[in-house]
Amino acid sequence: MNGPEDDLSAEQVREHREAMIALGRRLPQTTLADTATQLQTAELRAPAVGAPMVIDTDIGGDADDALALVAAARHSRELALVITADETGPDHRAPHPAGRGYGQRARFARYLLDVVGRGDIAVAAGATTGHTDYFCVEDLIPATVAPAPGGRDAVLAAVAELAGRCDGPIRWVGMAPLSNLAEVCDHLPEIAGRLQVTQMGGAIHYRRPERAEHNIRLDVDAARRVLAAVADGRLAKPRFVLSDTTFTDQIAVHATHPLHRRLAGRAESWAVLLEGHLQRWYRDHHDSTLQHDALTLSAALGLPFVRSATARIAMDDIGRWSIPDASDAGGAAGTGLRVSRSADYPAFMAWLEHALDPATPAAAGTVDLSGAGARAGAGVVSGAGVRRPA
């Protein structure tokens, strides 16, 4: 079985490109010369850092989603849209303002963003399987928080609106099942081609080998559709931060952890809300929360904590992943993805604790998207990193 091959950094790719061009010039009328000509005329993919960001989340269950969202909202000016997956309730056509009806994850996301001071970020309620086992923040959402626009059409409209207000790449940070991403790939292929996806999920050696990793298992069909979009070129090769990397006590937060202690007793509304969420998660589910999603966010932000490699991934009927043998299908079995190999957990946790320390000033605010390809004449640039009507 072949293992992953280490990815090159962007700078290493540029160095290799220039070396190949120089070699081709020294060897005219050769295959290398032809390759050099192609490299000269080809453009390297634009870097995603600084591009507008979408977070796709099943917030309101495990508290790691909420911690990651607050870190992004406080420190990433480019966060423009939050959509939810594995939504509560069976039917987006009948949302309820409170309780377990459809769209409660989106209502919690809306409230959390508002108390962080990021009312500029749009929220849409996305895919639901009709039920969910993980939702523990019902009593933290005021009845006055209105339902967000919901359903597949609302998600597609929100993504299309963002894409229409800026040019270039859009960062997609997946912290949930791949349901919404699959819909974008199937129904908005021209926008899917602009996405640079960093997704939490998948596992090569899952701790429970009889089943697939959580985010894949909850919507195997969506995962299959996303892999098909990668295979046929509609979606650029995503980076998956695997459960193999994230399932470790080295990134666990519990009641006595310094991060939790920094939130406890603070007066800031967002800190009070996060602390309440953590307490409910400990009470109802587990005595700690692993920071799967914040680690994934850090990779999308271009921070150096997660080390990735390229590998071909095969998925079976129930969503389990493996690396196929090189002899399978002549070495072309599976789908080429970037997958996490390891992470610098202490450095990552130091960053996260700083980002979520109420004493740390928030860095997010008004952003000029001119460097990210904002379209002139479309309106006024908002803190969400997109242009809103003037």
Automatic annotation (TrEMBL):
Residues 54-314 form the Inosine/uridine-preferring nucleoside hydrolase domain. InterPro entries: Inosine/uridine_hydrolase_dom (IPR001910), IUNH (IPR023186), Ribo_hydro-like (IPR036452). The keyword Cell cycle does not apply. GO terms for molecular function: purine nucleosidase activity. Pfam families: IU_nuc_hydro. Transmembrane segments: none annotated. Keywords: Glycosidase, Hydrolase. One of its GO terms (biological process) is purine nucleoside catabolic process. GO terms for cellular component: cytosol. This is Inosine-uridine nucleoside N-ribohydrolase. The lineage of its organism: Bacteria, Bacillati, Actinomycetota, Actinomycetes, Pseudonocardiales.
